[in-house]
Amino acid sequence: MKKAMLIICCALGAIAFISADKNTSSNSEMTIEGVWELQHQFLYENNIVKDTLMNLNGYRQVKIYTKGKVMWTRFNPADSNEWFGYGTYEVKDGKLEERLEYGSDAMNRALDTVQVFRFDLDLGKDRYSQIVMDSNGDPESSENYKRIE
Questions:
Q1: 2 domain-assigned
Q2: Within 13 Å and on the Cβ side, how many CA atoms surround 8?
Q3: Which of 20, 50, 58, 88 can bridge 45 by disulfide, Cβ–Cβ 3.0-4.6 Å?
Q4: Is residue 113 very low, low, confident or very high in pLDDT (cuts 50, 70, 90)?
Q5: Which residues have CB under 8 Å from 53's CB, separation 6+?
Q6: Mind giving me the DSSP string for 93-108?
Q7: Distance of alpha carbon 111 from alpha carbon 99, whole angstroms
Q8: pLDDT at 128 over 60
Q9: Taking the complete model, does pTM exceed 0.85, yes or no?
């Protein structure tokens, strides 16, 4: 919703009329650009969340989206592999597509088979979920993030 605001300024005997539009819609504030931390993951069955996987024992995963670029990193004390990736991303029509160019050794092995990752996107101002869909178009799993910057 847009509201117009009329401001009358008097300076040195002159009167100026300035009209400014203020966009009060929260949609203008919703962008994936920023820094996000994984909170938990959902596993779905028959379109219903059947299990929640919490981050345990120091597990952390952070994603940074900026100007069409994405970088993510994962720290898992129980896994001796390093995990990170870098590439480009696009958000369009409720979909998130990440095209990774390179990553850690473990990620580069995964990139031998998959370089483009596509998700359904559920985006809020300070949270988002990237949802993996199965071949029937039903949700299979999701990673659920909160904005940290």
A1: no
A2: 2
A3: 50
A4: confident
A5: 40, 41, 42, 43
A6: TTEEEEEEEEE-HHHH
A7: 10
A8: yes
A9: no
